[in-house]
Amino acid sequence: MKIKENFKAHTSSSWLSIIITTIIVISVYLFMEWIFLATKPSFMSSLKGFDQLGIFFQSTIFTSTIYFAMIGIFILIDHWLSNFIKGTMFILGRFIPSFLTACLLLLLVDNFSYTIFQFGIVTSTGLVRAMYGLFFVILLFVSIKELSALASKIEIFINNFEKKKILTFSLIFIFILVLVGNFPVLKNIFSRNLSIENDPLKNSPHIILITADGVNAENMSLYGYERDTTPFLESLAESSLVAQNAFTNSANTSGSIISILTGKYPIDTKVLYPPDILKSVDAYQHLPAILKLNGYTTIQYSFGHYVDAYQLNVMNGFDVANGRSYQSNILRKINNYLPDNLGFFLYEIGNRIVDRIRHIFFLKQMSNPLKEVSSPDNYKDMYKIDSVLNFIDNSTKPVFSHIHWMGTHGARFYPREQVFSAGQDPAYQNDWELDFYDDSILNFDQSMKILYLELENRGILDNSIIIIASDHGQRFTTDKRLPLIIRFPNGEFKNYIQPNIQNLDIPPTILDYLGISIPNWMAGDSLLNDIPDNKQIFAVGVGNVEIDEGSVVLQSIKPPFFQFGYVTVINCATWYKLDLSVLSWEEHEVPAYKGNCTNQQLDKNQVLDKIIDFFNAYEYDTSLLFVLYE
Predict the structure, then answer these.
(1) 413 contacts 437 by C-beta, under 8 angstroms
(2) Does the pLDDT value for residue 10 go beyond 50?
(3) Is the pLDDT of residue 615 over 50?
(4) Cα dist. 286→263, 281, 311, 374, 595 in Å?
(5) What is the DSSP code string of 165-209?
(6) What domains lie within the chain, and their CATH numbers?
(7) pTM for this structure?
(8) 584: three-class secondary structure by DSSP
(9) If you average pLDDT over every residue of the chain, what do you get?
(10) Cα torsion for 222, 224, 227, 231, to the nearest 10°?
(11) How far is 506 from 515, CA to CA, in rounded Å?
């Protein structure tokens, strides 16, 4: 009997030593990842110091709470079931901190090597990739050995005190942490409205939104260009709503795509360029979420880092984004119930280690967005079309899909077929070379023809809305006219729109056609209604800021306008630009503007009035701009 009691006492102290060891490891792991994200361009860059610190404490408490719940199950199994299961649970309990330690060491080594030598897991291939896997296994064995020694020391310490007092104190401390520390999480769970999807609207059409990267309307024969770059789109225009003077709201892709999806200005969502992400209510207010609530399945095939909906924190938006399912991603599903900053922090650090583990064990290749954006082999544009069509084929619900087309992305172009650049070697082209750029637009045009014919062959062309747009002008400009072509079922609403319109008008137009109420947080207008002639178009860009590894460096972002380096206004055919960092002014005529202007020309003070009102509406401090009045 005494031996049995000693065994139980030893077991309880062993479990307690494992728990203490694991909590230490969890805290160190989260702290090191918090340091990494807090000191590099990330979603935390725009947060105040107290809010950043709160992320660390909240994540530690929340993660520890999850661990306590899991280890409690292990202990119950260990207490009630067979000796074999007992041993298994105990080994698993000791494995958890060892695995986390090995993961942390792997991340530290990878961060160091990539920062200093630009070499790491993401760049590894073949044998080197396998060596990283072997290295991780070695780290795991070393961690098991060292943490076992640490747990033994902790166990000796525990045995020198009355165990009941330690256990009682521990339980009280844990209860306080769970109750107080997780209050923001509990509050978020009960306050967040996770709406249930409704049945699809009657005869809801499929919606296919294609945004081609950096396409100028002035380089399309549809808009009067002398080269025959868009023969198919010209024929499509005969049964479509075509905007003659469409403009972007952002010079940068992330800001533009988020504006198209949300119907909000970038200065409203604070999303312009990585590491910007949607936060708070903005993460849930967007077109895909509204369509999901009305019975749609939503998918996106775009590009990582700059366009990917999950990385931009579009919550409850896309069921599938670039081959990843929302429902199968535990971290994304947990995010629904967590405060925004905490949820995205856990999502980010979870992805960091999961991506690396899958890569080194040859489960899934880790993506390098900076390398991919400059390599046409990674664009996979036709694969995106095939994936959308396959998804529609196998869906019992209407589908909303977003494709971001990268073949027109500069500064160099690698068209599948060379017409205007025939006889020229793409390997020796200069940046932004016109012949190759025009060929990339022609290739895009022919790909849109393939999509159109595939929809027609499937008998769903007239149960589909096709939207063809662009994120910004070539070379990340806001003064260029962009294509905007919308073909509704049966060619409804075919027309040419001459007044200025903006990408923000796309989501309200879709909702208006479907008969869904347009929310008041959308800043755009439906193109199915009368378009005012005196509408000004506002856009922003990053301007002269420091970019590192595809993200804006925190130190180069300064109040009162932060990441927004300049703002532009288009009034009829005139383009105005105000550099917000040096307060310089520029204006010129919009190149190749279509039609005649009827609204009054604005002087500098009138444009400045509109810019100040624009920023004031979203609570920016504009006092700095008053010195510009003449």
Answers:
(1) yes
(2) no
(3) yes
(4) 7, 10, 15, 30, 33
(5) HHHHHHHHHHHHIIIIITHHHHHHHHH---PPPPPPPTTPPEEEE
(6) 2-191 (no CATH), 206-326+381-532 (3.40.720.10), 547-628 (no CATH)
(7) 0.80
(8) coil
(9) 85
(10) 20
(11) 14
Predicted pLDDT at 438: 97
**Residues ≥6 apart with Cβ < 8 Å to 126:** none
The letter for the amino acid at 80 is: W
Cα separation of 295 and 204, whole Å?
9
Quote the pLDDT of residue 4: 41
Of 589, 423, 428, 568, the residue nearest 502 (C-alpha):
568
Condensed to tens digits (0 to 9), the pLDDT of residues 237-254 reads 999 999 999 999 999 999
Angstrom distance (rounded) from CA 570 to CA 171: 64
Residue of higher predicted confidence among 228 and 151: 228
Helix 83-117 and helix 340-360, axial crossing angle in degrees, nearest 10: 90
Give 82's pLDDT tier (boundaries 50, 70, 90).
low
Nearest to 40 by CA among 573, 559, 602, 553: 553
Tokens 């979420």 correspond to what residue?
289
The helix (H) or strand (E) run that includes residue 352 is helix 340-360
Token couple for 510: 């879709």
Amino acid at 247: F
> Can you tell me the distance from the alpha carbon of 93 to that of 74, in angstroms, rounded to the nearest whole number?
7
The strand pairing partners of 548, in sequence order, are 551
Q: What angle do CA 564, 568, 574 make, to 5 degrees?
A: 175
For residue 210, what are the β-bridge partners? Answer: 403, 468
| Torsion sign, CA atoms 147, 148, 154, 158 | positive
* Residue 196's pLDDT band (cuts 50, 70, 90): very low
Task: Please list the alpha-helical segments (H only) found in 494-565.
Answer: 506-514
What is residue 8's predicted lDDT score, i.e. its pLDDT? 43
pLDDT over threshold 90, residue 296:
yes
Instruction: Please name which of 308, 65, 19 lies closest in space to residue 166, comparing C-alpha atoms.
Output: 19
